[in-house]
Design brief:
166 residues, mainly alpha, hpI Integrase, Chain A, three-stranded antiparallel sheet, 6 helices
Length: 166
């Protein structure tokens, strides 16, 4: 049996800039939500199902500039993600707006038209953002995850190099 492996190419710096610019300048009522979703996926490498399961209570202050999000995956225990100051500011704005807009029983972080956002909705948001940003290859949640993992690996290698230089 032959197995065909495909390599998912992470986003380039230029593709990231275009994606971030397109989302920050969007004028739709969902623009802030979509920008938060893309920022979280790109920074954390979350799966679409993990993103859809985030609750308002899972978002907490880590310090005065950064937020932490507790993510529940397929395992019983969750993991805590520490967000950058930039992504934290975006999430804070979104959470503040959503808490004022919603009734108290709606606890999930991301909603569509009065219903919880599902995995297919996340995939559609990502695909549409990629098209608007002019990214040649189709943009997928998996590609954003691969980009986040690539960034983490690169940062780890740089930190190891700095340790060796001491």
């Amino acid at each position: 049996m032959r197995v065909h492996l495909t390599t998912v190419r992470p986003l380039t710096a230029d593709e990231r800039r275009r994606l971030t610019y397109v989302e920050s300048s969007a004028q739709s009522p969902w623009a802030l939500r979509d920008a938060v979703i893309l920022a979280l996926l790109l920074e954390s490498g979350l799966r679409a199902s993990e993103l859809c399961a985030i609750t308002l209570e899972a978002v907490s202050d880590a310090d005065d500039k950064r937020l932490a999000i507790t993510v529940r995956g397929t395992k019983i225990r969750g993991r805590r993600l520490l967000l950058s100051p930039e992504t934290s500011a975006l999430v804070r704005d979104y959470v503040r707006r959503e808490r004022n807009r919603r009734s108290s029983h709606e606890e999930l972080l991301f909603y569509g038209d009065a219903i919880p956002l599902d995995v297919q909705g996340v995939h559609a948001i990502v695909r549409t953002a990629g098209e608007r940003a002019g990214i040649a290859e189709p943009l997928t949640v998996h590609r954003l995850r691969q980009t986040a993992l690539s960034d983490a690996w690169t940062a780890s290698r740089k930190a190891q190099g700095a340790e060796e230089d001491r």
